[in-house]
Amino acid sequence: MFGLIEAKNIAFGVKGKQILHPVNFTTDREEFIVILGPNGAGKSTLVKLLSNGLKPGSGSISYYGKELKEWAPGDLAKYRAYMHQESMIASSFTVREVLEMARYRYPEIKSQFNKTVIEKIANELNLLALLDVEFNFLSGGEKQRVQFGRVLLQLESEGEIQPIKYLFLDEPLNNLDVRYQIELLKHARKFVDDKHGSVIVVMHDINLCYQYADRVLLMQKGKVIRDGSVHEVMIPELLSQTYQIELEQIQSFDGEVFYRHLSYTSNLLDNTLIK
Ligand SMILES: Nc1ncnc2c1ncn2[C@@H]1O[C@H](COP(=O)(O)OP(=O)(O)OP(=O)(O)O)[C@@H](O)[C@H]1O
Question: Closest Cα to atom 29, ligand 1: which residue?
Fold first, then answer.
């Protein structure tokens, strides 16, 4: 069976600097995938390449067996949405207009279905009171919630049978307070559990990653150094080496697992675990 997203040997460089070394990536089911790794590891670059925000220097990417370059942008927009780190909108649109723009690819833009889904998502993300406010006047966290609503809305469509869709989120927890961090992750988890599709998210919080991920891609220096379940990837020694900080995994009496920092280390750990 072919992967629903299949990336073969994708690599990216700028002016002779290799930013992403060749990566193979396949996903063929609904899964919550976290891309984890230190600053500058290449996480955003990988997400941009996989979501068609950036063209690979070499290698190829296909969705549902069809190469990305063969997709019409309007069609692709219905199957994958990308929430990037920067939250700027050039003109003075209201929140409602920003959300309506997410429905641009659906010809029935002013239809009852569009109105219903906008109200539903705005309600679920606690945005109803902000609908008539200008987007650029919102706080950082409010903007993040609107942007999350925008990508969810981009993928909403009518019909009983839906293909697996892809939600790419680059550091969506930035600026969110703890309540909204959890709410966003629960929403994203529900997107996967309700079989709408897969979430591929860049995030830095290793404890939240452990709680929510089905699969983790651990990156370092432009390479994916481990790809597997949380149990296969989130090994304290491997994380400690990757981040150059000593981390230990604690299991509470009721079985809850979390990571904590022991003490700062730079060259204390050997590198034998990194494959
Ligand atoms: N267009 C570009 N030109 C030059 N260097 C770039 C470009 N894009 C990315 N880089 C560099 O490539 C490296 C990887 O960047 P990337 O944004 O993918 O990292 P990241 O893992 O997402 O980092 P962070 O956790 O800090 O957001 C960084 O050193 C960055 O400066």
Answer: 40
